[in-house]
Here is the input.
Amino acid sequence: MAKFCFFASETYEAQESLKTLEQKYGSTPADQSDTIIVLGGDGTMLETLHKTHELNRPVYGMNLGSVGFLMNPYNPDDLEKRLDKSGKVDIYPLRMKVTDKDNKNYDAIAFNEVSLLRQTRQAAKLKIGVDNVERIPELICDGILVSTPAGSTAYNLSARGPILPLSANVLALTPISAFRPRRWHGALLPRHVSVKIDVLEHDKRPVSATADFTEIRDVKTVEIHQSRSIGSTLLFDPDHHLEERILKEQFTS
Here is the structure.
């Protein structure tokens, strides 16, 4: 019999479903399980990925949240059969390295995106470099983000960035409310590049950097690249595959 570990959001519906599933299938610690089952929405899925990615266990989500783009429909029955038929998607996070105004260093990972945002009423001034080549000497904006394909339908899409197919092997570099250069709408970058963002006038125009749930304030420089040494495997029902959902999203009005 398969061994499952369950992670659930704090909502009443998710907690009640957790009780039902644990009674039906039992519960096993994550490091001894065959599959990790997530009950909730995309936020709960991201939290689980951050907690469990080092365990190298496949993760299967069932939607009991508001969006559920990374989730499957909720169904407590025949869980083992559903998993046997499921398709696999390997996703790799971004690694963020930050130096703040006091020259303290921080590291974090993001399965969705790394975003930089102004902290005050004044616009941010950023210098953008890609693989040690300066691409934009001064970007005046509310912020900027680097998105993975899996995260491209989240904040990146809200900022009018492109939706990325999982097989495209690219990252999205998307400005947030760019003022100058006004006509620059972002770039698609090969997944192997490193992006460096320098915050100009960081004392006068403070900027924060966020990797999924980890926020660092008053940053001076941020380096971002996609890690291929760590990652997670997501499982999807055959009729609910993430690749198809991302493709379908591009034709949604």
About this structure: The mean pLDDT is 94. The longest strand covers residues 133-141. The CA atoms of residues 171 and 180 lie 22 Å apart. The chain is about 15% helix and 40% strand.
